Amino acid sequence: MLTNDEKRGIEEIYTSAMNSSDLRVEADRPGDADVIIVAGWTQARIGGAMLRLHTEYDSTEKPRMADVEYFYEPMLRTAESNGRKLTKEERKNLKRRAHEKKHEFNVQQLSLFLERLKALPDVRQQASLQMMKWGMGQSHDPVTRSERTEVREHDAEMLKRLREAVSAAPEGSAELEAANADLVAAAAEVDGRRRAEAREDFDRCGEKASAIVRWWLHQICPVCGGTKLQVAEGTNRHNGKACGGCDGTGKSEIPHQHEGRRVANWMDQCIERYRASLGHRVYGRQAVEDARAGVEPAAPGASPRIRVRPPRAPLVA
Fold it and tell me: Could you tell me how many helices (H) and strands (E) the chain has, helices first?
């Protein structure tokens, strides 16, 4: 008889429930539908969206990216089909067009792939909002930052001057009405500039978040494929040296340096909080079911045995 004492992880339970075709809710036994219900009750909603995104990414077929040779060789054969050899300059131009075709093809394949990830927009938006809270949307260009500071100082001085004019105007006079109108118009103008700056910062955060989320989903080094070692030229064997693309870590470089690292750590923390909350609810319900069935509770720290459910009783007509 085969037994399995390994406790299923939360991600395995969640993935199995998301892909299950049996979503019946029964009072006498927990099922996949109960896991989905519990997931909806969990308060860590951001972590839930990130876990769904990771589940969708792992279960979706990855796009097949083309290399330059895929386009260059057919183009070269077509160009030399009349027997004339291309010059070095012509080959260079042909190679450049092949690079452009490769880029367009890979972008299209990646876009089609990302469209199948339904949780991606929510995760990207939440990451962008968090980056806005941390002030990561501001430009690092010193000229741009200086210009924005000067504009804000000018706006503050202008509003202060207009408020003083309103305070100094006689009560009920035409001068007071004109000063109020000028203040309202200036405040609306300043508010419009602040909103434009916020949109610009949010768009900048969105671009950064897209790159960070893509890295977070697929962190494997594209040079060594995660093996951490170099491949000897002309062979498929490792030469024992650390990969130069990742310095032997097996992971690609995180985009946007310390900002990307902070966002990625925040995403991992959201996932951990969601796992903890979901696991408490799932395993908490299992403990209640065990108590109802008279099963002895497992020792603290021990993995519960996965039990085989009894066969369903046949329906009586």
Answer: 9, 2
Distance between CA atoms of residues 165 and 240, nearest Å: 77
d(CA 221, CA 230): 11
Burial class of 77 by CB neighbour count within 10 A (0 to 12, 13 to 18, 19+): exposed
**Which token pair is 170?**
């006689």
Render pLDDT for 184-219 as a digit per residue (tens, 0 to 9). Answer: 999 999 999 999 999 999 999 999 999 999 889 888
Q: Has residue 31 got a pLDDT over 70?
A: no
Contact 232, 238 (CB under 8 A): yes
Exposed/middle/buried for 224, CB within 10 Å: 0-12, 13-18, 19+? buried
Q: What is the pLDDT of residue 153?
A: 93
Is residue 202 within 8 A of residue 132, CB to CB? The reply is yes
Q: Find where tokens 């070692």 sit.
A: 229
Tokens standing for residue 10: 């939360």
- Which of 53, 54, 19, 57 lies closest to 35, judged by CA? 19
Please report which helix (H) or strand (E) contains residue 13, including its range: helix 10-18
- Arithmetic mean of pLDDT, 101-106: 86
42-67 CB burial, b ≥16 within 10 A, e <16 = bebebbbbbbbbbbbbeeeeebeebe
Question: What's the chain's average pLDDT?
Answer: 79
Q: Write the pLDDT tens digit of every residue in 51-67.
A: 888 888 888 888 887 88
Distance between CA atoms of 72 and 46, rounded to whole angstroms? Answer: 44
